[in-house]
Amino acid sequence: MEKNKQQLTRTMTSRHITMMALGGAIGAGLFKGSSAAIDMAGPSVLIAYLIGGIILLFVMQGLAEMAVRNKEARTFRDLVQSVLGKYPAYFLDWIYWKMWVLNIAAESVVAAIFIQYWLPDYPIWILALSVSVLVTAINLLSVKIFAETEYWLALIKITVIIVFIIAGLILLLVTFGNHNAVGFANLTEHGGFFPNGSTGLIAAMLVVIYSYGGTEIIGITLAETKNPEKVVPKAVRSTLVRIVTFYLLPFFIIVSLIPWNEVNGVPESPFVMVFKMVGIPGADHIMNAVVLLAIISSMNSGLYGSSRVLYTQAVDGRVPKIFAYLSKRKVPVYAILMCTLAMYLGVILSLYAGSKTFDFLMGSLGYTVLFIWLIIAIAHLKSRKKQAEHTSAYEVKWFPYTTWVAILALSAILIGIIFTTSIIVTGITLAIYLFITLTYVLKGRYQDN
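RE: above sequence
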């Protein structure tokens, strides 16, 4: 293959990767997973998302600093390998790839569930297949077209979340027509703020971590971002503020307006339920459409992230070279097609498990996001020693305290999750991790570029 075929082009700007990070994180975890998190923790889910947001802040600051220090980095592996060594970098690369391919499989099913709101007679697998074909087509276009598509999809759902927040606050605080202001009684009634105790709060952390997962996709865009040393820190700062805002405020409105024990088991998203309460004709259909676009947006980001991991693995000779082939539009076609197989796997699973497919996959995904964050935080902790002589345009304040807080909090959450999560989900996840480790051992020593 010609050399120029091996190079991705730097066509993405700050607004693109900021929206992509939002697109990856504001998806099924928020719109569908919210029901599961509220069912586990009740109103105390707000504390769970606040804790998760603080941890995310500390992890992403470390990622931004490492990206600025290592201007030649293309993905996570390049950031981690120079600090922690070959195995952690290999493990991170593959669990990140596994996270996204499973995520797009899960979200193809969730998208189908929301389409069923309008087409109840169509089976989930047919609807999931249709969405999968659409997302594949978008990713096979040029990177610039993909980035623009993702930008506008993310912008639409952010706009609607803002409208949701405004409408929710009006329902909570204002009496009008036949509507009486709901107030905040639902936060403490129905078993109190902690109806399921600390166990429920810990169990919800798995959904929380899964929901926030995807923000770290910024670390995959390095090879296709203009001036990453300037763009990445800026994107991290703006993304974090928006994500915490777009999670905490909507959840506050949901658990205030709707009794927490009435959220789960309802076919539609809590967001649709709230828009029904507004009383605007067709508001539930509008919200359902936006939720659907949000999930397609998240799938879009997921397919991008997984295909770029596979592409860089191929460029470095760790997987067959065919996955390094770039089309005339500088798109890794075969890497994308390989990763789309995960969506079709989700279609096949939905033939047997139906809407339960998402719940089954979400648990394993939560574990994976947690390990990704842990590895990034540990790498950041050690990166200062490795690169102490180099000055950086961006440095984390209060280092190493923030990084240690992230590591200790994630470790505590991991222990808690092990004891509160289905042993089947834990066992399957462990088996996947052991398989990745086994492939590393069988390949022998990892060759440097």
